[in-house]
Amino acid sequence: MILAITSTLFCIVTIKFLITLANLARHRVHITPKISLNRTKWPTVSIIIPARNEEDNIETSLSSLMKQNYPKDRFEIIVVDDFSTDSTRAIVDTLIDVSSVNVRCISGRKLPPNWLGKSNACMVGSQQATGEYLYFIDADTKSEPLMLQSVIHFASRHKTDLLSFNPRQAFTSTVEKITLPGIFLSIASYMNFKNANDKSKADAIANGQAMLFTRKSYDAVGGHTAVANEISEDIAFAKLMKMCGLKAFWAFADKLMSTHMYSDFGSIWAGFSKNMNLIVNCQSRFQVLGEFIKTNIIAWAAPVMLLVSTHHFIGDPSSINTYSLAINALMLLASIVTYLILIKELFIPARYALTVPLGISLQSLLILNSYRLSKSNKITWKGRALS
């Protein structure tokens, strides 16, 4: 009886998680490649790239932006060199020399009190920008030629004040393929895509890798000054926009942009540890502990309980043990199907569906570590303290 009750409770937790993911998939909005043949005048756009020690990424990112299928006299690219100590600046200067579009590289300013590095660099770029739209893009992204035209068309049609989207995640190493799908899946379960795009709802989602503002709305909320000391400045911006009655919109654009965030376990751990507790909104020990337990139930309950119920069924094939075996088998099957769909969406081999629980479980450890670091004021990123 205890096994049956436990199996039922764990099944409820897992199925609720899977239903949440199914609802998210149903409410996803995609920005697709778009060629607007009837449009004669395009708005001016300032693309701003904050770059600090990005020698491994900046050439790919900047080169792809220089190849945009957008009127060359209607967009500019501003790279803000945020005191890089590697060859970032030299790479950018070399690309500028052969560019046929308006590209500039400017130096960042000294970090003022109560400012974090990325917001500070973005603010410097915004002060030099001349576009009707300000488009902040991370240096670890790669854009397809129709990206800018498609995003501007979408923003204009939907009359967004802030448009942010999720690019396709690129995976190159085995450790990425093992850990990141589960982490992304678990993070997604905390989001509400439908409410995020409803001005009347408080839910807000944004991704700092790609944030497109109208200049008017950006200035109206105070620009990056308003989020100067926010670790998750993207989510803070989305919340601020909605609080001010402006339209923040969240979408997916996997056919327009890709990103390669982390390449080894150390960078994955450090990168997500800086703000994971903020992403899932865990601000107390009890919340962190609760999420840790729930997340690991979701990750491991199905296979563990199936093994236990199988053992009991072999010893005693009673109706109650048959029920436990059936419900745990159903729970595991539903989980595997969900993981296979996820893996297919991420364009990685199907065998990595088996390792998704590892990523989900790792996300629970990242919540713990992120909370610990935030309370001890030891969060750092790229050589700078974030707390």
Please explain how this structure is put together.
- The strands form 3 sheets. The protein has a 7-stranded mixed sheet with strand order 3-2-1-4-8-6-9, with helices on both faces. The protein has a 3-stranded mixed sheet with strand order 5-10-7. The chain has a two-stranded antiparallel ribbon with strand order 11-12.
- The longest helix has 31 residues, at 285-315.
- It has 2 domains: 2-24 and 281-385, no CATH class; 30-263, Spore Coat Polysaccharide Biosynthesis Protein SpsA, Chain A (Alpha-Beta Complex), CATH 3.90.550.10.
- Helices cover 51% and strands 13% of the residues.
- The chain contains 14 helices and 12 strands.
- It is of the alpha/beta class and 387 residues long.
- The mean pLDDT is 91.
Task: Describe the structure concisely.
GO terms for molecular function: glycosyltransferase activity. The chain is an alpha/beta fold and 387 residues long.
Helix content: 40-55%
Number of domains: 2
* The CATH homologous superfamily of the largest domain: Spore Coat Polysaccharide Biosynthesis Protein SpsA, Chain A
Query: Please, what is the average pLDDT?
Result: 91
Largest sheet: spatial strand order: 3-2-1-4-8-6-9
Number of helices: 14
How do the SSEs run, as a string of H and E?
HEHEHEHEEHEEHHEHHEEHHHHHEE
The CATH topology annotation of the largest domain reads as Spore Coat Polysaccharide Biosynthesis Protein SpsA, Chain A
* Class of secondary structure makeup: alpha/beta
What is the name of the CATH class of the largest domain? Answer: Alpha Beta
Q: What general form does the structure show?
A: elongated
Uncertain runs: none
